Amino acid sequence: MAGLPRVVDLLAARAEEHDRDATFPYQGIEAVHEAGLLTLTVSRKYGGPGGTLADTVRVLSQLGRGDASVAVVTAFTLLRHAEQARRADWPAAGYRRLLTESRRGPALVNTLRAEPGAQPGGLPETVARRDGDGWLLTGRKTYCTGAEALAWMAVTARTDEEEPRIGTFLVRGESEGLEIDPTWDQLGLRASASHDVVLDRVRVPADLALGLGARESAGDGTEAELARAWHDLALSAVAIGVARAAEAWLVRFLGQRTPANLTEPLGTLPRYRCALGEIEAQLIGAEELVHGLAPRVDRSEPDAVARTGPAHLLATRAATAAVQQAVALTGNPGLSRRHPLERYLRDVLSSRVHLASDETVLEAAGWAALERGARP
Fold it and tell me: What's this model's pTM, rounded to 2 decimal places?
């Protein structure tokens, strides 16, 4: 934590360059690694610091101020380590290998679930076929954050058996038959390298096939709820960090900008101070929500875990509204590539790629309210 401010400054110094060229921020990830933040959530039983969700949201909200792409890539590695801390599903030898690599340098890992055109609740199109004492994986995954730099990929797939089973297959980033298709060309988060990953008969040893089970068991249970809660609050924190960076730039702008028809900076006018106060209020609300829920999720409080989906929606809305209002207040300068505010706007808008649809979140919240109301 002590090195966090320096890391944020380093990220901010290179963010515009990586955004403009859509290049992966290797130096930024290296800085996060050197500060010990990339393994924050490695459990103490594995020799790590055992960072909590509360720790994670604090770190990610700060990294989001520096470079949202670095923050998002970091988030998915932290989420994977946190999941291992809770359920220890990786084989011991495989996880030791990941930790050894993490001591030598940045070892990024992500879970690859999304597929082009996939239907909610459907079987994965990525198929695992038996081949001797292992499996051969074939398929395509999309929105694979950090794709070009991942050391490990936890790929969800179904078996080609008569009764398909769903599991997670651990794939090395340099595996033969694996290709990165550079499809990511989004409005924002341009440096996150969230490309497609194409697998063509990629071999996976039998001991690296995890949790193979019936379709009904995939993604169910308390662990899945906790995993979603961590995801919701971690990605919320990144969006809030982006909005805080936008607010900081706006504060400097209002303190320095003096139009020709005024003798004092814009910040001296009540209208601008009220508008800035509105932004501040929105972000305070989002921070209190996310940072308040995180320690309760750490304590596995069921009510808190159930509220993280709506919290993610509300925090992202608040962050987006705050940045949009900052752009509206600044006029043309806020939309100029000469200033970072337009990048903050693009990044916060693109954060929706990690958010479930409004309809899905709100319908689930509505069902929960109806069930609560039906109780005696």
Answer: 0.93
